[in-house]
Amino acid sequence: MLYWDYAAASPPYEEVVQTMEQIMKLHYANPSSLHRPGAEADRLITRSREVCAAALGVQPQEILFTSGATESNNLAVKGAALQYRSRGRHIVTTDIEHPSVYESCLQLKSLGWEITFVAPDRTGVVDPAHVAAAVRRDTVLVSVMHVNNETGAVQPLREIGSRIKAANRRTLFHVDGVQGYGKLETQIKEWQADLYSLSPHKVRGPRGVGILYVKEGVALFPILTGGSQEQGVRAGTENVAAVVASAKAIRMSGERREAFNHQILPLRNRLLDFVSGIPEFTVNSSWDGAPHIVHFSYPAVNGEVMARKLEELGMTVSTRSACSSRLAEPSRVLLSMGRNAADALGGVRISLGDSHTEADVAALEQALLTAVQALKIVERGTK
Amino acid sequence: MMRDRETAAAASGGSSIDYADMLLLRFGEFTLKGKNRTRFEKTVLRHVKEMVKPYPKAVLSKEFGRIYVTLNGEPARELAEALKNVFGIASISPVKVSRSEFEDILAVSRTFLEIIAPAQGTTFKVSARRVWKDFPYGSIEMNKLIATPLLQGYPGLLVDVKSPELELKLEIREGHTFIFCEQIAGVGGFPLGTNGKAMLLLSGGIDSPVAGWSSMRRGLEVECVHFYSYPYTSELARQKVVDLARVLSRYAGVIKLHLVPFTEVQTSFTGIGQDNLIITLMRRAMLRITTQLAEREGALAVVTGDSLGQVASQTLSSMNAIGRATVLPLLRPLVMMDKSEIVELSKTIGTYDLSILPYEDCCTLFVPKSPTTNPNLRIVEKIEATLPGYSARLDAAVAGTETLSITPYGDEKPSDVVSAQAGLQEEWF
């Protein structure tokens, strides 16, 4: 079985697993406890914060540990909206955000906030001018992802950031960096981002930990209360082992970013070239997209069916983001890019990791051809 | 005035600092100081050199009343942030450098205005100074020659030669002309150490770090003394003081911290049945130990964070009874300040967030229910005279004192905090 779902979850590095194991055995004390083992555990958290800050080019006190990128995104969006509600109740985001941002915005909408959703172009990229045009005097937050989790489209964050700040200096800028870190350069300062979310398990770290960069001077309304952990913004006992292992994964994948690109980009290009050559497919990824995602639609068949067929042929792929793949609804992201309902239902996502080789890609190509042949009999005849 | 100019630049959006070639540092009040001036200037220069160390491309040069930092691509904003904390620096101007030719000066002045992007209606003037007398135009002439084309390019600017919001200054020298208009306020005061050395009683609270900073600003070199009572106070409390001293070291380059084991001394006061005098006795013991340390280190005063009336030990009567335990001058920079002013200052200098961390320290421990606000000096002295082994205990505390040299970017720890971290293995990260 070949695994092609790195964008959903990546296998942890061996070193990460070892770190996790050792710390679980040695440092089980609560970092908030006043005794020596507690102080040691606290020191591990502090050191992890420093390591993460160095990897992101920010200050340690700007790093917050959460339970995952979903929490980071929720905290960034709702925390900023609630904290700065006196500045206004308007938020700008895009149609293609991950559900953890998108639905946080919808939730705020139900509480009286006004949300402007900016649509992408046909390639899945949002126009910075459109984002800036949506920013008003009472816009508290703009949230735009770095790399789209379905199509791999890369958003022009530097341009978006500078235009937001030109339009309204007080508007906060949140970047969901989950699919971008370790693949593309992370330039929090250059983007002028005030908030940045990151998920270690997408970069071969453990699950259950998320990172939120909060620029110094920016306050967030706590979503979880009941403790003074994480500067009082996020209560709850820290998962020491997973936090340390996350710091390690983030450092390692940051250091290996160029090597990763060097290895993965030729494979991505070959695969993208291959799926572009299959007449039954509509390709949704572009050549200047992220180096690890190839997304296409097979409009004649539900993506789910295609995924099952490929699994039968030894290939694990997903339909879109894992978080929404259990919904039998057309993809919101593809619809917003102007694709029709059939395309939006027939999406298949292949995401690569550093374990993949030329031979793996060749095998996948063979399986794709076989699957298309086999599925002819169930085609909906939408073409 | 200085503040006004800063706000004017900020309100209009642009700042010349991002485009500066050089920073011009001006000295503060000590320029009045006649004979000692050279020594003062040298001290500032040494401190500036220390702060510029992490930026190898920056080049320093000194001139009467000023220091120039040529950036050569080093980040102006970061450097200015660091340098404005150097005691003795009154202000910093980001400078653009042009060749000393009329066309160049005009072109750079234009760029300068574009960066600043002054708002409509900003009042404006040009002040040229011809230092290099061979330059073909005089100062007054240059004012007009530069201002006229600038005003044509910016119809929104209004001329005001008396108190303009934006004053574009030109200094024409042989080879280079300096062009600047913004002033970032520096912390001012006297260069560090030019007024001698004192010992600072550093607790973990809000006041004492502020007292330390205020003394340093007056040119005092400060060494910190902290009393801890393990196991009654935690290692975290001691680490907190190390971290506080680290913040102070940003202003000093390096700062000494003496960690005094105080448990034996402190517990010896608890069994004498004079609970209301414990604080008085304790503070006197601290002063005695500090006086010994001061002799050892060659310091001539003791600085405390006392603020009149704040707590029982800070009534006039208490201060009198406590202060008599030392022959050294007691400096109390905060004595007449309101708590809210002290809190504001501690936020500004960056110690507040550390100070409010909730650890027990030796001053909050063993606090009697009703400490006296009016201690009787004779009784206090009598108790001390009859306490068995009192002075031996004080000597032991001095002997057991651990001294750390704290630097802004270091990672110094008291010895047993280090052992608490023995569990940390770097390969985990």
TrEMBL record, chain A:
InterPro entries: Aminotrans_V_dom, Cysteine_dSase, PyrdxlP-dep_Trfase, PyrdxlP-dep_Trfase_major, PyrdxlP-dep_Trfase_small. Residues 3-364 form the Aminotransferase class V domain. It holds the Pfam family Aminotran_5. The keyword Ribosomal protein does not apply. Keywords: Pyridoxal phosphate. SUPFAM superfamilies: PLP-dependent transferases. It comes from the Bacteria. Its cofactor is pyridoxal 5'-phosphate. PANTHER family: CYSTEINE DESULFURASE ISCS 2-RELATED (PTHR11601:SF50), CYSTEINE DESULFURYLASE FAMILY MEMBER (PTHR11601). This is Cysteine desulfurase. It comes from Paenibacillus tianjinensis. The lineage of its organism: Bacteria, Bacillati, Bacillota, Bacilli, Bacillales.
